[in-house]
Amino acid sequence: MGFFGAKWEETANRLVEVVRPHVGAGEQLLGVVMASRPKFLASTPYAVGVTAERVVLVPVDRRLEAAGAPISIARGEITDASVWGWGGSVADFLSASAAAEIRFATATEKLRLLVLGGNLVENALAGPAQRSGLEALVEFLRAARPSQ
User: Fold this and answer.
1) pLDDT of res. 78
2) Which pLDDT value is given to residue 103?
3) Which of 38, 81, 99, 126 could form a disulfide with 117 if both were Cys (CB 3.0 to 4.6 A apart)?
4) DSSP 6-17
């Protein structure tokens, strides 16, 4: 395992440590992924944990320590979702940043996440835990997205 492999393993372990306190006793953590939530001229990094029934987003600082209150979104709360522009509205698909974003919405909030992984080059840069966490997140959103 090279330098990047060791760093990704260390990152994955930190993400699990940050998310695990927000996972219920009967829940199993299916995956974790490092993501950033873009804002105008800034972004906030998040540790994103996926269970069978919900997604937990915990803001983190540059040392990968919790830096705010977690956001918990249950499967039934998802009202819309698109992954890299696919599955959402025409506006989602045509958006300049759609190819790089995972978007989902609840009745009260719209979330946009940038995540490393999902294509040949990014998968080569991402570690195994990042790739499997991304798979778990995409599968969760696919299953949670209401039929149109």
Assistant:
1) 92
2) 84
3) 126
4) HHHHHHHHHHHH
pLDDT value at position 129? 77
What's the CATH number for 3-144? 2.30.29.30
Where residue 40 falls among pLDDT bands split at 50, 70, 90? confident
Amino acid at 82: S
Strands 101-105 and 71-74: unpaired
Please say whether the dihedral angle defined by the alpha carbons of residues 74, 80, 85 and 87, taken in this order, is positive or negative: positive
- Coil, helix or strand at residue 83: strand
90: tokens are: 């025409």
Whether the CB-CB separation of 75 and 81 falls below 8 Å is answered with no
Mean pLDDT, range 77-88, rounded to an integer: 71
Beta bridge pairs of residue 81: 104
With beta carbons less than 8 A apart as the criterion, state whether 18 and 65 touch: yes
Q: Residue 26 — φ and ψ, nearest 5°?
A: -90, 0
Tally of CB atoms within 10 A around 44 = 15
